[in-house]
Amino acid sequence: MNKQLQKYLKNRAALSPWQLEGSSRTDFAAAIIIPALAERMDLPATLESLCLNPSVYLAQTLVVIVINNRVDIPADQYSDNQETINWLRSNPYPQLNLAWIDASSSGLELPAKEGVGLARKIGFDASLEWLDWKISPLLISLDADTRVDGDYLSTIFDHFRINTNRAAVIPFRHQFGSDPEQEIAIRHYELYLRSYLFGLRLAGSPYAYHSIGSTLACSAEAYIKAGGMNRRCGGEDFYFLQQLTKTSGTGMVDGTVVRPSPRFSNRVPFGTGKAVQGQVEEGTALFHFVPVVGFQILKKWFALIASQWDHSAEQISLQVLNISPVLHEFLAEINFDQVWKKLQNNHSSREQRLAAFHDWFDALRTRQLLTRVETDSVDSAEQIVAELLKWGGYAEIEKQADQLRLLEGLQGVAGTS
Q1: Largest CA distance in the chain
Q2: pTM of this structure
């Protein structure tokens, strides 16, 4: 076991009082971590989709289910979790290297106010000691209601073998809704996610990827370098990917698609389930499409920093006024002048300073800036996306179905259903 791993396990891992059951091997090339809260009905289909992958890859992969709940869980969900644990102990899929962690039973529950972030972390951290550290093992995140294709594992293994980025996201397309209203809602939400990613790419952001917990993967070394998974009860994927990007770089897997569930959810304060539920039940959107001007401001901001990397904060701030008063106000609020002076003192070369700048002006600050701009738009979602696509070279695409089809193709989901 290498020194970095030992240090991480000692100082940062969430191990006690939880134990990994079901496997004694310590030579896996990858581990898939699946948090499960009352997932007895959905989990089998997810595991069955994994079974469709070639046995040569399944043999190298540990699949870890983290059955979790807090003390205050409703009785029916607790019973579901206990049933799931007993079912897993019956070895339902011998073709999988199936293991599990009981974070549900008395004395093993998650602490109050904890949730999916800690559940993911428990699974990731526990898996580290079961991996083959003579190679470069992988950690893969999945959800208990998500389906994968038969080329899922081979594509992920191939990606990390040939790419230098040590973190990656996998293309996604949500499963079909259970009724027309849910289907409309999930495609509308997907249009939002895909248009946001499209805009980030046009702007040149290093954080141009989607943040969905069931679509991320990284090397185990990158996981440790990033400080491990955070414990957030919602948004854990966003912050984890942000940190991975800063420390190891994040790429996009090409060749397979992950299929999350479109179901409703109140388990986290935001995310797919919450967004879809808000649209269907309340007719309200918990998200707002970013108009093209927001991404144009972002692109000009990045270009300004790249071209004037050796200028003073005062000189740059004057130029910012020509780009956008909204950007100028936002930078004042987050103390750009002071931060830039520190970057000048600590990073003398252009490459170092720009890297440090993007570490500071990260995915969160990007989102905060774009949120300022998005509130000014009164156009429909289709109008906003049409303008964004036009800026990207795809004019006169005004129907949502056509917009989605184009963005799916650009983001690795062409020809799927």
Answers
A1: 68
A2: 0.93
